[in-house]
Structure formats: structure tokens, C-alpha cells
Amino acid sequence: MKKIELLLPAGNIEKLKYAITYGADSVYVGGKILSLRAQASNFSLDDIKEACEYVHKYNKKIYVTVNVIPRESEIALVKDYLINLEKLGVDGIIVSSPSIIKTAKDNTHLHVSISTQASTSSLHSTLFYKSLGADRVVLSRELSLDEIEYIRENTDTELEVFIHGGMCSAYSGRCTLSNYFSLRDANSGGCAHSCRWNYDVYKDGVKLNKEFFRMGSKDLVSISEIKRLVNMGVECLKIEGRMKSISYISTVAYTYRRLIDDIYSNNLRPYEYYEYLLGDAQNREAASGFLNHEAGLNETLYVSSDSEANKNFLGIVLSCDKDNTITLEVRNYFTDNEDIEVLSPGEDLKISKISELSKEGERVDAARHALEIVTFKSIIPLKEGDLIRRKK
What we know:
Elements: E1 5-9, H1 13-21, E2 26-30, H2 45-57, E3 61-66, H3 72-88, E4 92-95, H4 98-107, E5 111-114, H5 123-131, E6 136-138, H6 145-153, E7 158-165, H7 177-182, E8 202-203, E9 206-207, E10 213-217, E11 219-221, H8 226-232, E12 236-239, H9 246-264, H10 271-278, E13 286-287, E14 300-303, E15 313-320, E16 325-330, E17 334-335, E18 339-343, E19 350-353, E20 355-359, E21 362-363, E22 366-367, E23 373-377, E24 387-390
Parallel strand pairs: 1-2, 1-12, 2-3, 3-4, 4-5, 5-6, 6-7, 7-12, 11-13
Antiparallel strand pairs: 7-11, 8-9, 10-14, 15-16, 15-24, 16-23, 17-22, 18-19, 18-24, 20-21, 20-23
């Protein structure tokens, strides 16, 4: 059985490298044109060339999102852009428009995936895109496991399923709230996430709510659903979050990599173990979306949340001397003598302790500022690129 592909987002070169290091089989990036997520740190052609060289050095793959619904003025850009992507070494593209599928198939050998923006939610739609030449379909996030399995049993088209990250409150990418309220078009990469704003609710001029009302979805987390997706033969599992942080990308890649590897080695541990590894990578509340049943109250955020962004990601290891003196780039405040957890690619979660915390050769009682460089003694050796977080 071919091992399922773990696909991670990358908002820039640095995040791409962490995604690959922490376990991704492939990454997807956005270009400067014809890509949604216009606010992300999208890749220039030079960036894409560098990304291709890095990813292929590790025998991994890179896909570029070309998933806008193009207007007439953009059609002329498509052919040359796709030809350039292929020349740079891109493995495939993620698209929504039949016109871009045709252009890709007529002019390149790029692998073509149908974006979740196309809301492919049935076998008939899957077969339709296959008839146009699509190599893979990223299924709609509104499908249940049973529906995914039915499609899998009735087509040999590659299937990709979202398993983690933000969920759209409408069919993915088709919400018009953003355009209505802020003139930012969701289908041109400008979504303002209006479903997550705070609203008052009125009837006949009378305000009904005491707390602010929202209509956003909880984030998707599907730790306990991965084994079934593997067993049914889905080709690819996809993580959302091109605009997320290094700690998010690394932690999510690390967690699902270990989960997938444990499934294939028949060494699956209790799901609580993987949930613990995931830690605080999700700032918002999470649920399994539509995978187990029709999404309802428990999958939706209706009231305002007072939760703050967690500050448990403490820093990135820059080096480790022979005596276990660690040089660290700080990301959040911590004190001397704190217990820490260490995420190290390909290894189980480690436990250590900070001692003899110093800055510029002087002992300090705390690391106070993001991006400052500190040193400390660890009770175990660490490696460059390891992430440390506060122990729960």
C-alpha cells in the first residue's frame, strides 16, 4: 500500500523549511498572482525556484495554488505563468477553474489538483473533473467520512481531504459577507473573515443578544479520523494555514507525521497522546467538522470568545554545545528553572529543564523579549531547529 501523503501549507520560505523538516511529504504555496490568500507572504518566481530546489533535495513535492476564479483580464496571464512554474520545477498546481485545467493540460505536464474552492461534494462532480483531465480532487470540507468512502470506492481519481485548520462558515470560498461588508472578495484572495466578527442581533429594532453573536466555524481537528482515511485509500491529507506561524506549522506537521507513521507501523497509541502533542497549536476551539456527522451547534462559534493567543511556544534552538549549553531564539516570555517540552523532528517528545539562563554572558532571571538570543543549560542534548514549549 502506498503511504498516504501529508501536505502542509507554507506562507514563506522559512515556514516551508520547517514544514519539510517536521514531517511534511509535500507543501503548497501561493504565487504573487492567481492565488487566493492575497494577504499571505506569497512567493515570487525566484522564491518558487528556491522552494523547488529545497523541497526536491529531500525528495518531497511542491504544489502552487492557482485557485482564483479568473476574470477575463487574468486569462492572458495563465498560460505563461503555468509554463514558468513547470520550468522552475513545480510538481503540480491547485486550481478551481476549468479554464485553468485546460490551459495546464494543453501546455504543461503539471499535476493538477482541484481546489476545495470548487466544492466537489459528490462522485458525479469528481468524475466530471477527472474527465477534464484533473489528476486529483480536493474534496469539499462538507463531506462525511461515509461520503468520502463512497467516492473512494467508485473512482480511481486521487482524493485529497482536509484534516486540520480553519473552516469556512459557507461552502469554502463562496461566502459573500466579506465582499458585502468590506469590498474584499473571498474568491480573489481577500476574505476578511467576516463570519468571525462580533455582531448584535436585532428584531423589530430590539436588540436580542447580551453577548456578541458570531457565525464562524470551529477549527477542524481530526486526530481520531486519520486511521479510517488511511484504510479507505485516500491519497493525501491536507493541513490548512498558509498564514499561520512557524510553531503551528511545525507542531501540526510533527503530530500528524507521528500519527500516520504509527498507523502504518501498527503502533497506534491512544488518541489522547497525539492530542497532547498537538498542544496549543490551535488558538480557537476545535471540532471534527462534518467528518462524523452534519455540523451543528457543537461545531460552530456563536458567541464571542475571550480566549487569548497562547504563549507557550518559547523559542527555536539555534545550537547546542557539548556540555548541553543551548542557544535559543526567544519567542515568548519564560523564566529560569522552568520545565520545558522539546519537539525534535523524527523523535518522541522530550522533557528538559532550563537552568543558568543567560543573555550576552550575564545571568538573567527571565527571557523577556521575542527574538532576543539567550543561552541556558539543558539536562539533555538538543538539536538546531528543535522547538521548545512550556511544559503543561
